[in-house]
Predict the structure.
Amino acid sequence: MANGVSARRYSAVAILLHWASALAVLVLIGIGLTMTHAALAPLRQFQLYQWHKSVGVTVLALTALRVLWRLTHRPPPQPAGMPARERRAAAAAHHLLYLLLVGLPLTGWAVVSLSPFNIPTVLYGIVPWPHLPLAGLVPDPAAAEGILKRVHALGAWVLAALLAVHVAAALRHHFLLRDDVLRRMLPGRRPSTAPIVEPTR
């Protein structure tokens, strides 16, 4: 990094990808809950499923970009005095979050690909999206679809819980610990002058 201030902040690209992903995930959760639990007309439910698939593919693409960016750009160090167990817990939570942000779109894609209805996916009504070539690879596509549906639903609840913990942890750092953990990911905000510490490897 060029200086201490930039070392405390995530890059503009990382911030943009983070908040774009956060917004897309919130939209996904809202659509998912609505289309599975609300009493909707068949046409409205079909439209929501199409939007859910479109936003899910978007989340998958954003996550791929985030992983590539993270691998090639070092994140800012953790605040000084942050216990090693908290750093390990934060790292584990982030790894699980990335796993879900990849795994959930993939399981949803697999469910659509195995569906006997064979409904095509057209992202945002514009871009045709192919099915995964799974039907000929599993002996019982219907059973596999049912299992993947349950895995997808369970993973969605785990993701929602993990996001709640993530938000709570960020607010704790901001309001109770008063460090830079939240500020360094906010657009247009400069971090405080609190000391930082390099993460242990």
The two ends are 19 Å apart (CA to CA). DSSP finds five helices and four strands in the chain. The domain at 4-197 is CATH 1.20.950.20 (Fumarate Reductase Cytochrome B subunit).
